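#structure-requests
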Amino acid sequence: MLTFLLKKISYGLLVLAGVVTVVFFLFNLAPGDPVRNLVGENASEQTLQQMRRKLDLDLPLGKRFVLYVNDLSPVSVHNTKSAVSRIYFDEHKYNGLQLFPVGSQRVLFLKYPYLKRSFLSDRNVSEILSDAIPGTVVLAVVSILFALVIGLVMGIISALKRNSIYDRLMLFISALGMAGPSFFVAIIVAWIGAVLWRDRIEIHFFPWLLLLFLIAIGIILRKMEKTTFSMAAWFLGASVLTFSAFMFVAANVSEHSFLMTVFNLPGTGLNMTGSLYGVDVWKGETLELQNMILPVITLMIRPLSVIVQLTRSSLLDVLAQDYVRTARAKGLPEYVVILKHALRNALNPVITAVSGWFASLLAGAVFVEFVFGWKGLGQQMFTAIESQDLPVVMGGVIVIATAFVLINIFVDIIYGWIDPRVRVG
């Protein structure tokens, strides 16, 4: 197991080295002058030179890359004698432990990675990201947990009731969920939850009654085997008929008719924008969990759809295996056969999907955070890209890449725990 972990960590470090190299040259070779944008068009040449010297932008690209890697590496070489040196160990910038001297002025240090300082605020990039990451982590964890639990339950029931109305309905809903891009879903969820239904929810008596009546007829016909329509096509037809009937009634009956009765239910009361913490004039900083509801719904829709379909297809394959039939022949309860024998061996593709989606959600879900005004890593990186704050953007990308690597290593370990077929010695 130790050899396996060391091998995975080595691969992860190689991936991170490649990411650091690509990110550095990609952003530093981009057109534009961040110093000119920072100090303004009317700044003197002396001011420009001083700022470039402070940000190491006056050096050739190769030397800047070596300095950046030296700052980023947990084991690095620094000058302890000359304060004007480019690699001087400034205690305001670095936090580390001195190991042993390398020459007369340089010393090898073990330290925390240093991600430079922001061009705009002159704050340490690590501090900026540490303020933004908790909001994104909370949003991603809650979203993926809800998607995992609900998706597993829906997928298991769909597999056990194969080709039933429920199975077809779940496949139809999951297909819709996967087809909706996040920017579109975010706008729709924000409009419905924070605008359309914010104050109250109006339920018209007649169209819902007619819809329930049509669904009941459809179920009866399906039971009598009088129709071969799929659930998706039938539900679409019922919805069109319901809408047409409602429009006809609305145009021809009095507004005082019982058919036009409207039930007013309490609205969501949710705001379109907001973060995990808000500032109250009297109470100071307060925890506002209700602001998570709309972003979580938006983020969980697509992974939920993927989990439902993967769980269903994988579980159907496992249920057809010989050992499952043997377990049933031995008289084991059905829930033991499903949960202990079948589901455990069907989870590998689900775990792969969950890990990928979780890492993607940690990447910031930039548009979702932007739409809902959520203070997280995505919104922070979006702002940094707009203002060409390169250290913040580069630091954010490196943090995201590190999260991907760590999650992949963790998932490989979980594989060996869940499925004996992939265990390592």
